[in-house]
Design a protein that fits this description.
Helix 1 packs antiparallel against helix 2. The two termini are about 25 Å apart. It contains three helices and two strands; from the N terminus they run ββααα. The protein is globular and about 40 Å long. By secondary structure, the protein is mainly alpha-helical.
């Protein structure tokens, strides 16, 4: 799930005011010129994707259709604070797989 026009082989510094894409999947840093776009950004997108599938776009307890542990992993992945997110896609996947 990525835009081939915007594909880069590794982390990069955003040189525009924002990246193109669907707002509901975009991490906060994708709106800030000069921000680092990397795996932590991808983790946010994966978390928003989980929220779309399991919470009809929301992570509230009332909307969530997955397990509570899945919701907690998704909340971590979609934190507004980059340093609070999983720091790699691998870390996110390992956390997701550990859900019982």
């Amino acid at each position: 799930m990525f835009d081939l026009d915007e594909y880069r082989t590794g982390p990069f510094i955003l040189d525009a005011n924002r990246l193109p894409g669907s707002r509901r999947f975009m991490a906060p840093e994708e709106w800030n010129k000069g921000a680092i776009i990397d795996q932590v950004t991808n983790v946010f997108t994966l978390g928003r994707t989980a929220a779309e599938f399991l919470g009809t776009g929301a992570t509230s307890v009332d909307a969530w259709m997955g397990t509570d542990r899945m919701r907690l992993v998704t909340l971590k992945a979609t934190s507004e604070n980059r340093s609070a997110r999983h720091q790699s896609v691998r870390e996110f996947v390992e956390d997701w797989k550990s859900v019982d």
